[in-house]
Each structure stands twice: as structure tokens, then as C-alpha cells.
Design a protein that fits this description.
This protein is an alpha+beta fold. The chain has a domain of 114 residues: TolA/TonB C-terminal domain (2-Layer Sandwich), CATH 3.30.2420. Helices cover 37% and strands 12% of the residues. Strands 1, 2, 3, 4 and 5 form a 5-stranded mixed β-sheet that branches. The longest helix has 40 residues. The chain is elongated, with a radius of gyration of 64 Å. 9% of the residues are buried.
Length: 297
């Protein structure tokens, strides 16, 4: 037979409570340690940086992948595997995107035939004679020929320049010379020339007869003077020349005086002034007692 006392629980003492409490504490701590995961917060992104460099030359083409920022476009060049900034601030004299091998031309000392054949003469002791370096015959001949050609060329050039200057001066002087037409009875073919010559002769004869030289009249001196008178377009006298003397100073001087007294003469008509700047009238002046006439012979 089972005794009822066998089914009754044993009394709980203080040690049992302590063990239970420790068990629960360990279990709770294990759950906390294993169940809760601690992780570090995500690192914040740092501030972005921009690499800037100085371009030493300007390219028209924009690079697809730029390594740096600069003041203008520049195609990279060089042999380095990685992009590097410039190490000099000097402006590039030219731009190239490829590195090329350059073989400089070897410098060869220039020698001439004259230099090869030069002979150095040495002497000892005192001498009043100066020694000169000998010159090769070929070099001397070439030098003399070259100097002769140069002298001839300079002389020809100077002569040509002198002739050109003289020609220019003559052309300028000729251009400045007035256009002169000579009127005589033979050359006066056009009506306006003949009319002007007739009017000039009439005025000269009229004034001359009125102012006949008294001394010639008193001494009964007669004769003929060949007179050349140059007139300006306004009718004034530019020049009076005795082309052929009468043999008498009284008559020659009287002819000049009559030209001055009769001036000014008629102005050139438009038909004459359009063609010439001066008129030269050549006439024979005949002195007879109390009468002066003109003719072409």
C-alpha cells in the first residue's frame, strides 16, 4: 500500500531558492548575450576633393576621361602608366600627344679647302718682316673672282640708279615745262591762232608808231629787228628776246620798250588756253620814219 506521505513534495529550503535564482540569472544573461547583436554605425562619407592642375598647352579636342581640372582642354601625353601632374610652370612651346625619338644631327666641324691647306710658319728670333698665312691658289682665285663680281655688281647697280634718277628728274622737269605754241604767219593755220596773231600785231604797231624813238627819228636811223615775245594766258609778257639784232642798239631797245608799253595783250581764247600754256610770237619789226610795221619775214 502506498503511503500518502510519499506523494507530498519535499519542502523548499534556502539553497534551492538560491540555485534557481542563479539558473535563471544565467539563462537570462545567455539570452541577452546571444540574442542581441551589436554593430558599428556606417561610416559617413568624407567631403569630396577635386584635383586641379595647370595645362601647359591648349588642345582643340576634349579628352574623354580627364584626370584633372585645368584652365583649358589638354590631351595627355607621355610614357608613364599613371597620370601625373606637371612638374614645371613653364609654358610649352608646342603641343604633341606622342613621344617621338629624336636623333640630333651630329655636329661636324666645318672645314674648307683653304683651311686644310693652310700652313703655319714659325720662326725664332727678331725680324722686321711680317709673315702672312699662305692662301691656297684655288681659294685665292675664287675670292678674287667673287670680289670682282661684287664690285662690278655694285658699280652696275649704282650706275643704273644714277641713270634712273636722271631720267626721273628729266621727266619731272619736262612735265613742269609749260606747253608752248609758236605763232608766225606760216604756223598760224587755225582761225583762232591767226586772229590772235593779227590782233597782237595791230596793237604792237599802233603803240609802236605812237611811241616811235625820237633819237632814231632825229638821226634818221631805220632798220629791222627780229623779235620773239612769250605771252602768258592772261596776256602778260613773260619774256622778250631779240632773236636777230638790227645792228642799232637804239632800235633793239625801242622794240623791247614797245612790247612793254603795249602789254598786257588780249587773254588767250578758250580754244588756245585748252591746248597750250604759253604763246611765243615771232615777228620782224621794221622801223621806218614815224612808222612801225610787223611781218613774218
Amino acid at each position: 500500500m502506498v503511503d500518502e506521505d510519499d506523494f507530498q513534495a519535499a519542502p523548499v529550503d534556502a539553497s534551492d531558492r538560491l540555485s534557481f535564482t542563479l539558473f535563471m540569472a544565467i539563462a537570462i544573461h545567455a539570452l541577452i548575450i546571444l540574442g542581441i547583436n551589436f554593430s558599428s554605425p556606417p561610416a559617413s562619407k568624407g567631403s569630396q576633393t577635386i584635383e586641379i592642375t595647370l595645362a601647359t598647352h591648349k588642345s582643340a579636342k576634349v579628352p574623354k576621361e580627364a584626370d584633372f581640372l585645368a584652365q583649358h582642354n589638354q590631351e595627355g601625353s607621355g610614357t608613364e602608366a599613371k597620370a601625373r601632374q606637371i612638374t614645371t610652370a613653364r609654358q610649352a612651346e608646342f603641343a604633341d600627344t606622342q613621344v617621338r625619338n629624336v636623333n640630333p644631327m651630329p655636329q661636324v666641324a666645318a672645314t674648307t679647302l683653304a683651311q686644310k691647306k693652310q700652313q703655319i710658319v714659325t720662326t725664332t728670333g727678331q725680324s722686321n718682316t711680317k709673315l702672312h698665312t699662305l692662301e691656297a691658289p684655288e681659294a685665292r682665285e675664287e675670292r678674287l673672282k667673287r670680289e670682282g663680281l661684287l664690285e662690278n655688281q655694285n658699280a652696275i647697280t649704282a650706275e643704273i640708279a644714277s641713270l634712273q634718277a636722271k631720267l626721273d628728274k628729266q621727266q619731272q622737269e619736262y612735265a613742269k615745262r609749260p606747253r608752248v605754241r609758236t605763232l608766225t604767219a606760216v604756223s598760224a593755220k587755225e582761225s583762232f591762232d591767226a586772229e590772235y596773231l593779227i590782233k597782237w600785231s595791230e596793237k604792237f604797231e599802233r603803240v609802236g608808231t605812237k611811241n616811235y624813238p625820237v633819237e632814231a627819228l632825229t638821226r634818221k636811223i631805220t632798220g629791222r629787228v627780229m623779235l620773239s615775245v612769250t605771252l602768258k594766258p592772261d596776256g602778260t609778257v613773260e619774256e622778250t628776246v631779240i632773236a636777230l639784232s638790227s645792228g642799232s642798239k637804239i632800235l633793239d631797245d625801242s622794240a623791247r620798250q614797245i612790247v612793254r608799253l603795249a602789254a598786257p595783250y588780249a587773254k588767250f581764247p578758250p580754244e588756245i588756253s585748252r591746248q597750250v600754256d604759253r604763246l611765243k610770237i615771232i615777228r620782224y619789226v621794221k622801223f621806218e620814219p614815224n612808222n612801225i610795221t610787223t611781218s613774218d619775214q
